[in-house]
Design brief:
Helices cover 23% and strands 26% of the residues. By secondary structure, it is an alpha/beta fold. The protein has two domains: 4-260, Aminopeptidase (3-Layer(aba) Sandwich); 267-334, OB fold (Dihydrolipoamide Acetyltransferase, E2P) (Beta Barrel). It has a 13-stranded mixed β-sheet, with helices on both faces. The protein has a three-stranded antiparallel β-sheet with strand order 11-13-14, with no helix packed on it. Helix 4 (126-142) packs parallel to helix 6 (206-214). The protein binds zinc ion. Zinc ion is lined by residues 63, 66, 157.
Amino acid sequence: MDLSFLANGQFLHLSRFQPDTFAKQVRGTLANKTTIDIIAPGIVEITPATQADKLIVLSCGIHGNETAPIEICSDMLDEIISGSITVQHRVLMIFGNLPAMNTGERFIDENMNRLFSGAHKIGSSPERQRAKLLEDTVGQFFAKAQGNKEKLHYDLHTAIRDSKNDKFVVMPFLDDGRLPSAKQFGFLAACGVDTFLLSSAPTTTFSYFSSHQYKARGFTVELGKVRPFGENDMRSFAAARASLTALVSEPDFAPAARMSELLIYKVNQVINRQHLDFTLHFADDVPNFTDFKQGTVLASEPGAQYVAQYDGEAIVFPNARVALGQRALLTVVPTTLETLDV
Ligand SMILES: [Zn+2]
């Protein structure tokens, strides 16, 4: 099948506005023998003629208003379809919440990045149905890994508020004894990330799902701040885009990390909202990774007061308006990593 109708952003456009175009799977082969399989609206698998050693999931738009990663992925797909990028590895590209992109919102009914690892099973919101489809698709994709092929998942986001550290990565809790990967610190640093947050418990995020379920190296990558489509300063994403392009198109793009230049944090407190009148005790424009003195009250609600337990304890992802029972604030403290995997 001639795939030229997908070029110039049309795959994403049709996925968003005419999803029935992809009600049936579409397959085509490019001049460079790369196979393109459209699995569903917003989900495309790219298979090179000869495959190297990685299976790479690139997901974006799990939150519909986080436009910069969506634009980066759509542009990369255009370059793959036009042949200006030749992929060397299997790639699964996912544009997550298509209806929320169209309304310019984070989500329609609920936060999709709390619905993985089976959390979608109760209820039937659009996000739950989509999370189930994404899980199944990622499972089928990683099932193609044979031997010790490298399984990678970069779930690309932008944050709601400013951050003292513009680009940062949330590293899923490794509950299987694996150590963080030196190679991955190198790659993510090349993307412009200098701050890493080590999770301390299982979650229902997309990257934890791939990490836990398929032993992939999975990451939630925060690339900057939320802005509407067309209003992103793409210069601030140039390093990420170039590195992602090198990752898919080079046999083994593996820049070295200078660990001493990276900021590593571990989660200290996970504060969930239990009451309607949950209050954060700092201003709405306080950036992520702002730190506080020990004893500072960070948040409160009836019957509970949450204070910084250490000097230098910093706040990440504060959001007083999350649904009851969901995370309203993370606090983190600096840490170091003694040992790394390759
Ligand atoms: Zn997000």
